[in-house]
Amino acid sequence: MYPAELVNPMKADLTNAGFSQLTTSEEVDSSIQNSEGVVLMVVNSVCGCAAGNMRPGVKLSLTGDKKPASLFTVFAGVDGEAVNQARKYFLPYPPSSPSIALFKDGVLVHFLERHHIEGGTAQMIAANLSAAYEAYC
After folding, report:
1. Which superfamily does 4-136 belong to?
2. d(CA 102, CA 67)
3. Marked catalytic residue, from 38, 41, 47, 58
4. What residues contact 91, with CB distance under 8 A and at least 6 apart?
5. Per residue in 7-41, pLDDT tens?
6. Which residues contact 18 (CB under 8 A, 6 or more apart)?
7. Is 137 in the active site?
8. Helix (H) or strand (E) run with residue 50 in it
9. Which of 38, 49, 76, 117 is catalytic?
10. Phi-psi category of 77—alpha, beta or left, where left has phi over 0 and alpha has psi -120 to 50?
11. Catalytic residue check, 49
C-alpha cells in the first residue's frame, strides 16, 4: 500500500477533472451495473506512464463534444478491493495498471492496457479515446 501523501495528488488529478473515486467492490458494481449510457473507468497508478501519459491523455480526451456520461476511477496498489472488482469487468483482458475501460450500458466496448499507454503520448491516448467516444457516445 502506498502512503496517502504520495497518492492523494494523483487521485486528485482525476477527481478534480470530474471522476468519482471508487474504493469498494460495491461501488464498482453499482457504477457499472446501474449505468446507463457510456462509463469511463480508469485504473490509476503511481507509475510514470500514468503521470506522464495516461492521466493527461484521459483529461484531454474529455474536451471534445462527445464524452462518457459517467467517469470513475480506482487506484492500483491502494484500493485493492475496488481494483480487483473492476478487473472482473475487464475480462478477458489480464490485470493491467494503468488501464482504461469504456462501458456502454454495462458492457465493455473499449479497453486500453498498459502496453497501449506506456511509450505513447497523452495526445495519442486522447485520440484513441476520442475515437471510441465517437463510436459509442
Report:
1. Glutaredoxin (3.40.30.10)
2. 11
3. 47
4. none
5. 999 999 999 999 999 999 999 999 999 888 999 99
6. 62, 71
7. no
8. none
9. 49
10. left
11. yes
